[in-house]
Amino acid sequence: MNRADLTLGPLPERDHAFYGLVWAGATLAARVDRELARVHGLPLSWFEVMLWLNGQREPVAASDLGAKTMLSRSQVSRVVDALAGRGLVARSASESDARSVRIELTEQGRAAFAEADATRRAVLAPVFDDRLDDADIAALETVWRKLKEPRPDRAPDGTR
User: Are 99 and 73 in contact (CB under 8 A)?
Assistant: First the structure.
């Protein structure tokens, strides 16, 4: 059997939909990661932290970044260290908690993010934007919203 003959076999529609989401996320993320690293020297994990910081008007606690990103607390710390080393983020002491550090993009960081985001958009255009119309995007938004909603019988972290 050659690689072209491999299949998942018969799957229930829900399983196929799940594995399709996994495939799409992994494939698109890998494509974006390769190009961001090649063009800007920014791995996707760095870009994700910058994405969250770019949307904030005030510095944020490092712990809040860990809660929002798909990174562990130690990964966020390493990413922030690397970004700070390149002058893309600045740290400041929290006014309300002496143990807490707050993070924000520098002006250089905002410029680097804008350039990297333009690269991300260009990479995704032929494989995402050009293939999906407004109705497809609305359907995806509906799916993501439903998947992100906390279940009433569970805590926000998914536990009972």
Answer: no
